[in-house]
Amino acid sequence: MWVPVHWLGAGPALQLYISEAGEAKSASHSTFPPVRPQPDGQPTLTVAMSLRSPAAQAARKTLTRPSISRVSHYGRRLASMATVAPPVTQNSVGQKGPTAMVFMNMGGPSTTDEVGDFLSRLFSDADLIPLGRLQSYLGPLISRRRTPKIQRQYAEIGGGSPIRKWSEYQCAEMCKILDRICPETAPHKPYVAFRYAKPLTEEMYVRLLEDGFGQGRGGRAVAFTQYPQYSCSTTGSSLNELWKWRNRLEGKRATGEANPVGTITWSVIDRWPTHPGLVEAFARNIEAKLAEYPEERRKDVVLLFSAHSLPMSVVNRGDPYPAEVAATVHAVMHRLGFSNAYRLCWQSQVGPSAWLGAQTSDTVKEYVNRGHTDLILVPIAFTSDHIETLYELDKEVLHEYAQGHPGVKRAESLNGNPVFIQALADIAKDHLQKGEVCSRQMGLRCQGCKSERCLEQKKFFMGEQEIMPTAR
Amino acid sequence: MWVPVHWLGAGPALQLYISEAGEAKSASHSTFPPVRPQPDGQPTLTVAMSLRSPAAQAARKTLTRPSISRVSHYGRRLASMATVAPPVTQNSVGQKGPTAMVFMNMGGPSTTDEVGDFLSRLFSDADLIPLGRLQSYLGPLISRRRTPKIQRQYAEIGGGSPIRKWSEYQCAEMCKILDRICPETAPHKPYVAFRYAKPLTEEMYVRLLEDGFGQGRGGRAVAFTQYPQYSCSTTGSSLNELWKWRNRLEGKRATGEANPVGTITWSVIDRWPTHPGLVEAFARNIEAKLAEYPEERRKDVVLLFSAHSLPMSVVNRGDPYPAEVAATVHAVMHRLGFSNAYRLCWQSQVGPSAWLGAQTSDTVKEYVNRGHTDLILVPIAFTSDHIETLYELDKEVLHEYAQGHPGVKRAESLNGNPVFIQALADIAKDHLQKGEVCSRQMGLRCQGCKSERCLEQKKFFMGEQEIMPTAR
Predict the structure, then answer these.
(1) Which domain CATH number covers B318?
(2) Is B275 a catalytic residue?
(3) Are A234 and A339 in a shared domain?
(4) Are B469 and A372 in contact (CB < 8 Å)?
């Protein structure tokens, strides 16, 4: 028998019940099925709350904490879910789901009006563009000065970035496949969290809470980076942001406790540079583009893999990204039987400091000047179209630097490619079934890292107690 | 019936015969079985000569040239061997051998007395250390100033580099395996050509000629780089040197003709960064070193792959080396099931210009300072021990930077490792049986390349007429 305790105010209304055995249960009015308690759960008084409501703030203080979630191994983190109260709408038994699948990416402005905010966030991010002590002054300054130019670029590619559309589509499609191939963690619920554009990390997190995850109700969420290759500037920055908002909405800054009972259990898919499905999707797009050349010219076409560059200060700090991008390129060429000559080059350098080269634009210019005009540009570090493909490669490089030579082409981005989406599902399934928190590699801080944020983030995702010595 | 024509003087004495059908045949007194003509050979008057002898110089002028070896495809280059005269000691029929297998590497001084010459050659090589217009002035200056210090380093590692010993051993052992697994190109004859130490490229080339290859007698030789990953600074420099000496001893500067009849037919194994045998050999050495740690610490040991760095000017020119080193690292970690966290770092930076980082020494220092003292250094771009492993890693990094922590170790170099030598044989067999001149990738000049030497070398190895547009 369940006894209603009280209602919490605004936001996602949640009802809290306590069973005679002391087991708590909450009813979410959100349409998404709420989380299920673990079979070995201890009965615990757990309170579901709406964000920032006075009731919620009062409730936070009453949270009990019979077991502390200080474990690094994913299986043992799951044990903390044992203390989670079952929501009343829980209707599937014997399932580990629902599982929130959160696609993380940098994002892009969906309209030209969002460009200013997008750039402002981007240049304020020291993980991405380290501007030193003057970051908070220089960031907004640079972004304000660049806004009109970048707005014109977005106007030229149709008025905004398609990255939100593609990310939401990919994630939803992946979840459908996952429900089928990984039923034990179903249902899989798609979320997108962008670092610099809507939906921002905090918006995603609020939605998660509204949908019945966390805040006493536990539940499992997977942060799935959409950068196949790990960089502290990209995936690292997204994880820092996720850790920050987790702390504000569910952790110490929300409850006074670092690990209150019944928070969301996070795990991370932090890199997948050479997953065979990813490699297959890239290879097929290259083959499709090669097929556009007359057969006698095909073997002499040069493949120019292009990835976003990094400042040398980041490379020299030990960032793993250049090596992982190179691994993707090699895997794709291996899949293609090394049928063509190729180079890996780097695009989108900004500002006067040293960046990793050779530059994509210079590369195209040099080869075209030598009369070599059969080139395929292959974006290898982003999976969806965005300004760096649609404007920088298609408008600037293909038209300006390649002087419009018809032999200079670009391979399609992966976008809605079903081979790619199947790969995403396979990667996610493998992660869910292995039950790991993240890759072992993620536990290792870069040799030159001085970021406390990065240290704390790793401690959180790896689990506080069993933090690898490598994260120190 | 064979009719003796005349003897040529000093050096390897060779007898020249002309058959009634006009087919030529020479007898080498070297112990090595001389080359065999192709079955479809056209009868041609071909002269064997000893290097620089007056008779040879006279003979060069009489060389006829019924077919010009201007072909890029290896099969078609082989056709130029069709014009080669069979040496009289030819005793194996139905064979494509003998085949010269030439290991190319930078080399190292075998004694401290050779250090001066070694450094002088090294700092004079603009392919390796680009010093601009002042190369010929700065190179000797730097090498003279560094000689005493480097001599002391070689003294500390036993008085010289073991690289000659290892190279000769590896090549000889590989040839024995090849004779067994690739009998159609047997016998395989081992040669070593170092870029900066004895045996130098020209010494190797003279030995080849003395042993019955080339100078009218044709024959096949494979330039097998011992740098698994291609850099214009290393393999490229060795190929430039080989092209130069081929030109001086057999080509235009020797005979007045770019492609005289009966020269050695060269092909190149130019890179093998992810060959499964190489990867297996590296992985096993790492596993052996990991097994030295107590089991409970083993999974937290960090693997630090260390490769010789490159100046950023070379990286930004488009040199493929950093990406290929990264591919090796990724393949080794894949083979190890990503069991440990790892980083790729770069060693042996010299001088004030910018080099690719993060630096190996800084990396070890940083991790040790953070209290992380279980580290394995893995030399990943050299296969044999040399000063960079025995002195720089073992003396400087392990003892100075790691402060002698016993948890900081180095994985063995491949040296005489039988898994590695089997891999070399497998790579060579694959190359010999495919009949390719070199990888398609070798045909592509770097985007920032301004070197005429590099262009001419590629033209030579790819074949002049069918040179890929990418080499332009």
Answers:
(1) 3.40.50.1400
(2) yes
(3) no
(4) yes
